[in-house]
Design goal:
single chain; alpha/beta; seven-stranded parallel β-sheet; 7 strands; about 15% strand; globular
Length: about 240
């Protein structure tokens, strides 16, 4: 694909894991990146590394859990940074507990971040994409969107909802030249396994790396505008989910 007109991407959850790897993969491919996260220092470091490739990279601090602010803040970033061609919704959280032991507040927190914040990010970018008659939205879901796992109820439901959200928006926005893509990776070796809401012990050495997932995201983003990979499931070949 030729880059006669430089592309700009906005990536959420860009301070670590898949988001960070995607930011750096996009930068290496010559795509300007607006990086969104609430981890200030880590995000600044990623932006600095991305800039070394010669692209424009800027860090924006947004707490996506603050739902009432998300749409307006994302819209403001797009106005400041420049029209966004590619939106990568990667921010999210892991959560393990049997459904019978999941407090309502925890359930709500998972839905808010993994599903509703993505809806709000998309609504922040959509008007600009419609105006220009093109755009690519890539939502990072999970194998858990398609397959239930005991002890992961809230997470599975949030990712299955994200898949349905992506599919619906894809149908609604096709006529405006907007593509919506879902990436469903199996387990990826990121900091999610170290967070206090995830209590499992897996062999992380056999998992996918964030870099592999990032290459896949880049690949789907760079497809010619006439084509779309609507959904992509990416698994480790080492026999681990």
């Amino acid at each position: 694909m030729s880059f006669e007109q430089k592309q700009r991407a906005l990536i959420t959850g860009a301070s670590s894991g898949i988001g960070k790897a995607t930011a750096l993969a996009f930068a290496k491919a010559g795509i300007d990146v607006a990086l969104v996260s609430r981890s200030e220092d880590k995000l600044e470091a990623v932006a600095a590394t991305a800039k070394e490739t010669g692209v424009e990279a800027q860090a924006f601090f947004v707490d996506l859990a603050d739902l009432s602010q998300v749409q307006a803040k994302i819209q403001a970033i797009a106005h400041e940074f420049g029209a966004i061609d590619i939106l990568v919704n990667n921010a999210g959280m892991g959560y393990t507990a049997n459904l019978s032991e999941t407090p309502l507040a925890d359930w709500q927190q998972v839905m808010d971040l993994n599903l509703t914040s993505v809806f709000q990010c998309m609504m922040g970018i959509l008007p600009m994409m419609r105006q220009r008659g093109s755009g690519t939205i890539i939502n990072v879901a999970s194998i858990a969107a398609k397959q239930a796992f005991a002890g992961w109820g809230a997470y599975c439901v949030s990712k299955a909802g994200l898949l349905a959200l992506s599919q619906t928006l894809a149908l609604e926005e096709k006529s405006h030249g907007i593509r919506v893509i879902s990436i469903c990776p199996g387990s990826v070796n990121t900091e999610i396994w170290d967070t206090e809401t995830v209590h499992v012990n897996f062999d992380r050495s056999k998992m996918l790396t964030p870099e592999i997932v990032a290459q896949t995201i880049l690949y789907t983003a760079l497809l010619p505008q006439q084509a779309v990979i609507e959904e992509l499931t990416l698994m480790s070949n080492a026999g681990i989910l």
